[in-house]
Specification:
This protein has 556 residues and is of the alpha/beta class. 31% of the residues lie in helices and 21% in strands.
């Protein structure tokens, strides 16, 4: 039995494949394969991520004590690693859906060959790893945990757990297919033939605010039967007639907008009904899995449930499963607390603050446009950025190590003045190349939240939608969605001091209490990781100024 591991390697093999390193229970590096390959939602084993993660932590494979692995929907799957399986081990990891999981059935011990070394290992069930990623980084001593997504191991889509100190016990497995419904509806209605519909689900969520929930019965039918539907979904939508493929790409389609609103309403209602069976007054709640990226569901849970606090990690999607598996091994299996009170999201590989001016031309591709490069100290950099922002410029802001997950948190960001009424359309059309109905998030210093929004909630990872107070809806048009909400990012001085200083300086200069913040990447690509990635985005977009590490780059 595995009892004490100082260094744990966490691995996930699937879409959004990733690797992480934990030392004495603390995550020191987490990297998704997509940041290496530059292919969004990259799938499969990733030895290069393992090597680079260990190198970043100052370790080699010889220093690893145990591996925590996630990513198999049955134990005979080809993991891309060598996994010897004994007959006894098979009994520890169930291959049936069931309605209840016991803790002893959530993992199995085995051995795993990684980088030519055979190591003791545990394989952790998909939704249990999701739950562990959230609970063990929340700082809560006790919490209800909901992990819900498209599909995980053995056809599961939703698992309710309760965490207490080091233990994470499963309560109920429910066939709630919210993630699959959003993915299939989005893929069908956007007429997306490639990929798995990850991005289409997010587009559907954004479009929902433009519609009215007129097709609730059809949306409930779709949600109830989506796992059994194949090919066209018209038979599931009798109240809507023939909702044509590609309808969501056309804002003139009121039916498409109303169906998106209906599916969103049904998803929120179903999640609330499920949690009301388990939530106690004053409970803490951890949300995780791909559906935890739905900021509208998260907002509705906060409004309707008697919660003391709600926590969503920065990587609730499958990109956090390696971390979750590692934390489950450390805490639940070995019985040792990690004492993480809110996860530091800046755990990527590349630290841009160490980049020097002399390195920039060497790292750039041929054909770099003419530009000036200025060395700036911290204070001068904030002053220069504020001058540009108040003039209406969009800037690139790339510092330190990159953030985990899909949301920009101030280390790999495009930033802009949210008070400009043309800024959202400008970003969608010329820089991000997105549909015109897609909204942008607002980064605020924590102390500004009560006067700007109708709630004092913290949202350090941009995982909650907040409703702006009436005066700010007209004052911040670039970050206000049609329903009066914004995707909220709260910034503390402790978590990101440089970004906090920039927000404070911008407010002092303009009177605007926050900044529009969106991910620094090209269309169809993951967030930039390296200096080369940052320069390529700079060259291939019309922005004129990039702050990277200690330098300001400006196109001539």
């Amino acid at each position: 039995m595995i009892t004490a591991s100082r260094t744990i390697l966490g691995l996930y093999h699937g879409y959004n494949a990733n690797a992480c390193v934990l030392i004495d229970g603390q995550p020191v590096v987490v990297v998704e394969k997509e940041r290496h390959s530059r292919v969004r939602h990259a799938y499969g084993s990733s030895p290069e991520c393992v090597q680079d993660s260990l190198h970043r932590a100052g370790l080699s494979i010889a220093d690893v004590d145990c591996v925590a692995f996630c990513g198999a929907s049955d134990i005979d799957t080809d993991y891309g690693y060598d996994v010897p399986v004994s007959a006894d081990a098979r009994t520890r990891f169930p291959a049936t859906l069931g309605t209840r999981l016991l803790s002893s059935e959530c993992f199995r011990e085995t051995s795993l060959r990684v980088l030519d070394r055979v190591l003791p290992a545990v394989i952790v069930e998909h939704h249990v790893a999701h739950g562990a990623c959230a609970f063990y980084t929340s700082g809560f001593q006790e919490s209800l945990v909901l992990a819900f997504d498209g599909l995980g191991d053995f056809g599961r889509s939703c698992l309710i757990m309760r965490g207490e100190r080091t233990q994470l016990d499963c309560l109920e497995s429910v066939p709630l297919r919210i993630g699959l419904a959003f993915r299939k509806a989005g893929t069908h209605l956007y007429r997306l033939h490639g990929g798995k519909g990850f991005d289409a689900a997010g587009k559907l969520m954004a479009l929902a605010a433009f519609g009215e929930p007129r097709y609730l019965a059809a949306a409930r039918l779709f949600l109830d039967h989506v796992d059994r539907s194949t090919g066209g979904r018209d038979w599931l939508l009798p109240e809507m007639g023939n909702l044509r493929p590609g309808a969501l790409s056309d804002l003139d389609s009121q039916r498409a907008r109303d169906f998106a609103a209906s599916l969103q309403a049904v998803a929120s209602a179903a999640t609330l009904a499920l949690l009301r069976r388990h939530v106690l007054p004053g409970d803490h709640l951890c949300l995780t899995g791909g559906c935890a990226l739905n900021v509208i569901i998260n907002r509705d849970l906060l409004r309707e449930l008697p919660l003391a606090a709600l926590y969503v990690p920065p990587c609730p999607h499958d990109g956090g499963l390696g971390l979750g598996a590692g934390l489950y091994l450390r805490s639940h299996i070995e019985g040792r607390q990690s004492n993480i009170d809110g996860l530091d999201p800046f755990l990527g590989l590349t630290d841009l603050d160490t980049v020097r001016r002399s390195e920039l031309p060497l790292l750039a591709n041929d054909g770099l446009p003419a530009m000036t490069i200025a060395d700036l100290g911290r204070e001068c950099q904030v002053e220069a950025a504020v001058r540009l922002l108040v003039q209406g410029e969009v800037i690139g802001w790339c510092h330190g190590r990159p953030e985990l997950g899909p949301r920009a948190l101030g280390n790999r960001s495009f930033l802009a003045d949210p008070a400009r009424d043309w800024m959202c359309a400008h970003l969608n059309k010329r820089i991000k190349h997105r549909e015109p109905f897609r909204p942008y998030g607002l980064s605020l210093r924590e102390e500004n939240v009560p006067r700007v929004l109708d709630t004092a909630v913290r949202s350090p990872y941009m995982m909650i939608a907040g409703t702006l107070r009436e005066r700010w809806r007209s004052a911040l048009p670039a970050v206000v969605h049609v329903d009066g909400t914004t995707r909220l990012h709260t910034v503390s001085r402790r978590a990101n001091p440089l970004f906090w200083e920039l927000l404070a300086a911008f407010e002092a200069a303009s009177g605007v209490p926050g900044l529009l913040n969106t991910s620094y990447n090209l269309p169809g690509e993951p967030i930039a990781e390296t200096v080369t990635d940052c320069l390529r985005v700079f060259c291939d977009t019309p922005i004129r100024h990039l702050f990277v590490g200690g330098q300001q780059l400006s196109k001539c």
